[in-house]
């Protein structure tokens, strides 16, 4: 007799979970443990670095090895009497939020492995040693570390498939649909973690270009728009090249630095967005100009085109 489709998918989930737990065992119990042991002797790298590379892999490993895999195994052994996995996956889903931490840290971890492999030959040798073992299947540490990053999307795909193949009257339908919804939310959660990390990195680059003025550096700021602008001087009817950074809470009016050491710009004026007014100026002599007036002062600015002016005003 042909196995029902949904059972095949549930078995695939179990088999891939078994392989995944082996991979996590390799990361946590072999790589992490052995690198940590060497770090403690002070011969390879600081212990802190090893901890930073592996993030919270130990929690992830224990959760899958001691809880999720055994639960799935029990379900599949009992499939004949009780064909369902939805309830187990609902128990799994909230814990997958732990992945946010790991995923967020992944790029930094790979950079650390590269940097310290160059700095510390013993560290590099130890990794190369472990990579030669049969259990590594000729793959690098970085390759194995990517697996947890890809695991949640894999659950999502398998479960979507499972729900699609379930007969309408299956006892697992309600649970499986709810489980899929939960996994979907968690997948979004780790994507949000990545997006947040990228936002902070981009923000940091902007702060460096501004010379890291401490009253400007704030992780909650959001950069909305930046770009060159001409400042109109009404006194002598001329313009000079300036540069604007618009954040959610402030406008930075900057001067490009001629000699770029560290910072690219010097902040000349900082205007609060609260209470700021912006309007177009119809000036025959200077097209595409607009007026920005805030608590601090008023600026007459000229954009390079109508479109650019409208962008800034927007």
TrEMBL record:
Keyword Cytoplasm attached: yes
Cross-referenced SUPFAM superfamilies, in alphabetical order?
Answer: DBL homology domain (DH-domain), PH domain-like
Reading the lineage from the top rank, the first entry is Eukaryota
Q: Name one GO biological process term.
A: cytoskeleton organization
| Annotated Gene3D superfamilies | Dbl homology (DH) domain, Pleckstrin-homology domain (PH domain)/Phosphotyrosine-binding domain (PTB)
Cellular localisation: Cytoplasm, Cytoskeleton
Q: Got a GO cellular component term for this one?
A: cytoskeleton
PROSITE patterns per record: DH_2 (PS50010), PH_DOMAIN (PS50003)
For the PH domain, which residue ranges apply?
A: 222-314
Q: What are this entry's molecular-function GO terms?
A: guanyl-nucleotide exchange factor activity; zinc ion binding
Q: Which UniProt keywords apply?
A: Cytoplasm, Cytoskeleton, Metal-binding, Phosphoprotein, Repeat, Zinc, Zinc-finger
What InterPro entries does UniProt report for this protein, alphabetically?
DBL_dom_sf, DH_dom, FYVE_RhoGEF_PH, PH-like_dom_sf, PH_domain, SOS1_NGEF_PH
Q: Which CDD domains match?
A: RhoGEF
Q: Has keyword Membrane?
A: no
- Tell me where in this chain the DH domain is found: 5-193
This chain belongs to which protein, by name? FGD2 protein
Gene, per the UniProt record: Fgd2_0
